[in-house]
Design brief:
Length: about 500
């Protein structure tokens, strides 16, 4: 019995040792089922400082292990996208890369897949895109056509400061890895390029029917107009028979009338000038034109930071690079806390006090902020000036009022006289605001033996005097209040009605 137990213990011990050895020793062959998470590589951009260049190159070196193959000499990865494009439970990879030795060369896109014949990953497809400047490039996928095909969308800028969009769509008709993604659109415009997403039916969401194909809108300068902000809108629709996007409509969009000399200075192509223009706090403007003070942006070119505040959450992004566009600036930024989250901001000037912005999330991660940053923004100090402009009371006025406490006369120099029962009291006065309420302060002369040195009243319009049959205009109602550290306190005294003397 003891011998049987000993043999059993020895047998299980050998089994445990064998399992441990197999787990520790590396496999001689890389299995295609391994999963790779998407990684964005921030490349060096023209005009970077030595420190920024070293940092970008270090990121590219550190992240190179995410590539499923080694790139050729001089090829530097910009962005990676891992996805099962062939629906075979084996992950393929899309790589955007540039040629380090030629800064004017186009950004290329490559398709990397597992080759069962060789048992390794290799590059099957490689074509150029319309983008050239690596710091402006973004890569994402979307079902543009509504048939659940995967469209790869590459946006960025070229050396002419034009926006570009190149769209590739998965080839379902042919099972050819050398032509996996035919090009269905390539658009260049000196303005902005946007995808016009439309609401699709429940049948589409449930996989029963096709959805409507999205249109692509491009906004560019109107060469026939003298106003620099006048644009033309070109709408591209998908041609099912030809399998490409074609121009469907061209329309003119009038821009704001802005003093042209100042506008030319801002849009001179000098990134520093436009950065100085947006160096401020900006509030979001909703679709109905109201200002949303719960969502704002703060651009700080000096600290190279951009602060996003929305849904009671604040995010700080490092301002990496700026590139001038026809109507504004293209900014690449990176979250200082979540380094895999990058945002590219396409900012256009609407007026000297408003801008319009579109945001591209390079890596679409949910980190607790659901606010949409696309839309118009208004400069904060303009709102402050507008509020001051709408303030009803002025500090001084010239008017005479009759009241229960006597005849009160205001002078334009800030002095007043109160005549009652043959006596006259004089002093200083001022209209002002606290917590959005209009107040009047009377300060009697100190050498007249007054018991109080400061009288403060809450000021409102009185449209009708008590016991009067007809409404009386240009009248005021005064309620005695006291100002304290916690705000305005009503003293609950009788109201005083001031009737404008005719």
């Amino acid at each position: 019995m003891k011998k049987r137990i000993s043999v059993t213990i020895v047998f299980f011990s050998f089994c445990a040792i064998g399992i441990a050895v197999l787990a520790i020793l590396p496999s001689g062959k890389k299995t295609p089922q391994e999963r790779y998470r998407t990684r964005v590589i921030v490349p060096a951009t023209q005009g970077s400082t030595g420190q920024d260049l070293a940092f970008a190159e270090q990121i590219a070196f550190d992240d190179s292990y995410n590539l499923k193959i080694l790139l050729a000499d001089g090829e530097q990865a910009i962005s990676l996208l891992n996805h099962d494009f062939e629906n075979d439970s084996i992950e393929e990879q899309i790589v955007l890369y540039r040629n380090q030795y030629n800064i004017n060369s186009a950004v290329h896109i490559a398709f990397i897949a597992f080759d069962e014949r060789t048992g390794t990953y290799r590059r099957f497809w490689d074509v150029p895109t319309a983008a050239v400047m690596p710091g402006t490039v973004s890569l994402f996928t979307q079902d543009l056509l509504g048939d659940r095909s995967t469209c790869i969308i590459v946006t960025g800028m070229n050396r002419q400061s034009e926006h570009t969009m190149t769209v590739f769509c998965s080839n379902k008709a042919e099972n050819d890895r050398t032509k996996p993604f035919p090009k269905i659109a390539e658009i260049k415009m000196d303005g902005s390029i946007t995808i016009q997403e439309k609401e699709r039916t429940a049948a589409y969401r449930q996989g029963i029917a096709r959805g409507q194909a999205f249109a692509i809108n491009a906004y560019g300068s109107d060469s026939e107009s003298d106003n620099l902000l006048d644009k033309i809108e070109i709408t591209y629709e998908f041609n099912q028979q030809k399998g490409i996007y074609e121009v469907n409509r061209i329309s003119r969009v009038p821009g704001s009338q802005i003093e042209q000399r100042r506008l030319r200075e801002i849009l001179s192509g000098d990134t520093g000038v436009f950065e100085k223009f947006i160096n401020d706090l900006w509030y979001h403007v909703s679709a109905d034109g109201t200002v949303d003070r719960s969502q704002y942006l703060y651009f700080d070119p000096e600290k190279r930071e951009i602060i996003f505040y929305g849904d009671e959450i604040q995010q700080i992004f490092a301002w990496q690079s700026s590139n001038s566009t026809r109507y504004g600036l293209y900014i690449a930024s990176q979250n200082i806390s979540v380094t895999t989250l990058r945002r590219i901001l396409d900012i256009e000037i609407e007026s000297l006090d408003s801008i319009r912005m579109r945001v591209f999330e390079v890596v679409r991660l949910k980190i607790g902020v659901s606010a949409s940053w696309d839309g118009s923004y208004r400069r904060a100090d303009v709102l402050a000036r507008s509020a001051e402009k709408d303030t009803p009371p002025r500090s001084y006025t010239t008017a005479v009022y009759d009241s229960s406490m006597g005849r009160l006369q205001f002078y334009g120099n800030g002095e007043y006289e109160l005549s009652s029962g043959g006596s006259t009291a004089r002093g200083r006065y001022a209209f002002f605001q606290v917590d959005g309420k209009d107040l009047l302060e009377l300060r009697p002369d100190a050498n007249k033996g007054n018991n109080e040195d400061r009288l403060i009243y809450h000021l409102t319009n009185a449209n009708k005097i008590e016991n009067s049959e007809e409404p009386v205009t240009e009248n005021l109602s005064l309620s005695r209040v006291r100002l304290g550290s916690t705000g305005i306190h009503d003293l609950h005294e009788s109201q005083i009605i001031l009737t404008r003397a005719r």
